[in-house]
Amino acid sequence: MIIGIIAAENKEMMAIKDIMTDIIEEEIYDLKFFIGKIQGKDCVLVECGVGKVNAARTAQIMIDKYNINYMINVGSAGSTNADLNIKDIVIGDKLVQYDFDITGAGEYEKGEICGVGKFFYSDENLIKLCNDTINELEKRDFNIKIGTIASADIFCTDRNKSELVRKEFGAECVEMEGASIAQVCYLDKIPFLVIRGISDTPNGNNHIDFVTYLESVSKKVAEILNKLILKM
Fold first, then answer.
1. How many other CB atoms are there within 10 angstroms of residue 229's CB atom?
2. Are strands 89-97 and 21-28 parallel, antiparallel or unpaired?
3. Which of 37, 38, 25 minimizes the C-alpha distance to 222?
4. Catalytic one among 47, 88, 175, 200?
5. Domain count of the fold of the chain
6. 14-38: per-residue pLDDT in tens?
7. Does the active-site annotation cover 12?
8. Is 200 a catalytic residue?
9. What are the residues whose beta carbons fall under 8 Å from the beta carbon of 223, sequence distance 6 or more?
10. 176 half-sphere exposure, CB direction, 13 A CA radius
11. Which long-range contacts (C-beta less than 8 Å, at least 24 apart) are formed by 25-31?
């Protein structure tokens, strides 16, 4: 079994690298892949860069080159749920691209991709293992929510936009890569999961909060991932 792990930002990626052992580095198309182990399981880790195209490109390269069995996307996100605070965790049971809109071309819903659908559903077994992991984390200073994650090529700073995404898609948070990785995995029949830590909320200080909390949020995501991989 080989587990592929993709992060967009360097700090997100480094938090995962810190829990890896036996690391070997390879470079493919200017992407640095770190091959090693987490909890004794074979893993491949890479930083893809920000945005849906970077994420999808990297996911396909990883699938082609390393023949992975599972894909996990980790990183940060902006909350759309008033009950979620900075440093809380969202695990996506389904993903949607909220900036994808072909409603003007026919009878499509917002976010629906022709020939593919609107939502991409995470692997049921991985979600079950996430629930088991959550139940074991009795003493923690953060909340964990399983729900919808919405992706777009937008760093969302507008409270009204955030509320609209929540209303339209039931999203718990917004980010810029997860749903495009999910689409690639869906097409390639690779089980996937997205784990995101809340680094900011639409409060007018998104960029400041993002920079301030990215490292600590990434470490919490790594903690969850470490416990999850032990169960895989």
1. 21
2. unpaired
3. 38
4. 200
5. 1
6. 999 999 999 999 999 999 999 999 9
7. yes
8. yes
9. none
10. 15
11. 28/61, 28/65, 29/61, 31/58, 31/61
Size (the chain), residues: 232
Kindly report the CATH number assigned to the domain that includes residue 215.
Answer: 3.40.50.1580
Confidence of residue 211 (pLDDT cuts 50, 70, 90): low
Query: What would the DSSP string read from start to end of 142-191?
Result: S-EEEEEEEE-S-----HHHHHHHHHHH-EEEEESSHHHHHHHHHHHT--
The answer to whether 224 and 104 have CB atoms below 8 angstroms apart is: no
Task: Compute how many other C-beta atoms are within 10 angstroms of the C-beta atom of residue 50.
Answer: 16
Domain of 74? Answer: 2-231
> pLDDT, tens digit, for every residue of 156-176?
777 788 889 999 999 999 999
Selected catalytic residue, list 9, 12, 93, 112:
12
Res 206: pLDDT: 59
pLDDT in tens, 61-84: 999 999 999 999 999 899 999 888
**pLDDT tens digits along 175-205:** 999 999 999 999 999 999 999 999 877 665 6
Give me the amino acid identity at 137.
L
